[in-house]
Backbone:
């Protein structure tokens, strides 16, 4: 099976802009979780989607949002970008919600100037 | 508030040696403890995982030791190799309610010297 794919891999934006990141889970997986990874804060959970519904949400401002489509592909959106949003955004998929094994994609490196 | 504390931040081990990384947690609702390995430019990859009803799990050169009463768990890498040089993250999942997300430790950067 193909792994989790994320596009784009690298992105440069300026403050105030918005960005949309995409994640395609492993075939057959219905749960997609998003994480933010920074050197200072480490890996932090953003939100989880299962069957097009947001099941869990981390402690991030409302500027961070996401959605999931009927084919389980997911997008996350960050509006009004701030310098502190520069991070590696990781997507992980699993077969069911709250399940054991999460498989991570390579991430999207977002740089905000 | 950090719920999973990982140590050390960095570790240098000679080839063939044993690498030991420790994690501690407070939330007794955690019911699943995976370890992830991450190479530069890559996403984390699941290495090995354990549930609290088991005290030890071994897969090849990798062993998790789990102490439920102390709320601690550790990763042992036997016969460490230069190819093991990576950042290792412990994590825990809150099995209570609908919260299934993973909570990660801050990571340990392992360097294995040839």
Residues:
């Amino acid at each position: 099976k193909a792994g989790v794919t994320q596009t784009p891999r690298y992105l440069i934006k300026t403050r105030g802009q918005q960005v949309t990141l995409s994640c395609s889970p492993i075939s057959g997986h219905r749960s997609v979780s998003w994480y933010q990874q920074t050197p200072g804060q480490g890996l932090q959970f953003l939100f989880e989607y299962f069957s097009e519904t947001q099941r869990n949400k981390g402690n991030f401002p409302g500027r961070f949002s996401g959605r999931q489509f009927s084919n389980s592909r997911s997008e996350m959106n960050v509006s009004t970008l701030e310098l502190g949003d520069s991070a590696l955004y990781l997507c992980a998929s699993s077969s069911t919600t709250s399940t054991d094994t999460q498989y991570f994609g390579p991430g999207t490196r977002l740089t905000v100037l | 508030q950090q719920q999973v504390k990982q140590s050390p931040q960095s570790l240098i081990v000679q080839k063939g040696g044993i690498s030991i990384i420790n994690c501690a947690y407070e939330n007794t609702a955690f019911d699943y403890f995976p370890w992830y390995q991450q190479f530069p430019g890559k996403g984390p990859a699941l290495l090995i995982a354990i549930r609290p009803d088991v005290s030890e799990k071994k897969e090849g050169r990798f062993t998790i030791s789990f102490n439920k009463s102390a709320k601690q768990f550790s990763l042992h890498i036997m016969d460490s190799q230069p190819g093991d040089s990576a950042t290792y993250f412990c994590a825990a999942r809150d099995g209570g309610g609908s919260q299934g997300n993973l909570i990660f430790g801050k990571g340990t950067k392992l360097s294995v010297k040839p």
Notes: Chain A touches chain B at residues 4, 33, 42-45, 48, 55-56, 58, 90, 92, 97-107 (CB under 8 Å). The mean pLDDT of chain A is 92. Chain A is about 0% helix and 55% strand. The two ends of chain A are 37 Å apart (CA to CA).
